[in-house]
Amino acid sequence: MIEEKVTDDWREQVSRWLVASGCLYMMARGDECSRWDDSVDYANLEAFDYGDIPDERFVMTTWHERQSLAEVFWFAAHCAYHPTIELATVILDIAAAPREAEIRTLYNDAIKAS
Fold first, then answer.
1. Per-residue buried b or exposed e for 88-113, using 16+ beta carbons within 10 Å of the residue's own CB
2. How many C-beta atoms surround the C-beta of residue 68 within 10 A?
């Protein structure tokens, strides 16, 4: 969730960190979310010297420019999958102020929704 402007360098560093940390499905929502989608794609390619990426290390990316957080969380809970690995959810919130309680509530509601 991107609520704050960031530099291109910072976005690239975070994208590389996500890929190196084992991220396999990245959903971007918020400010310049399509740039985050591209940045993680490029970081994944770079991690394998722009060659073949093994299935178990391929990072699926999506961006959700016009969707609410509730819609994105529902998608994450019910539609996001990786073909070879079971996913765990980690939420990265790039915002000026903490909002953990609100985010937990929205995500938990999305898990319960069918």
1. eeeeebbeeeeeeeebeebbeebeee
2. 11
* Alpha carbons 33 and 10: distance in angstroms, whole number: 14
Polymer length in residues for the chain: 114
Residue 5 has which token pair? 């402007």
Partners of 28 in beta bridges = 63
pLDDT in tens, 37-93: 999 999 999 999 999 999 899 999 999 999 999 999 999 999 998 888 889 999 999
What whole-number distance in Å separates Cα of residue 112 and Cα of residue 104?
A: 12
What is this structure's pTM?
A: 0.91
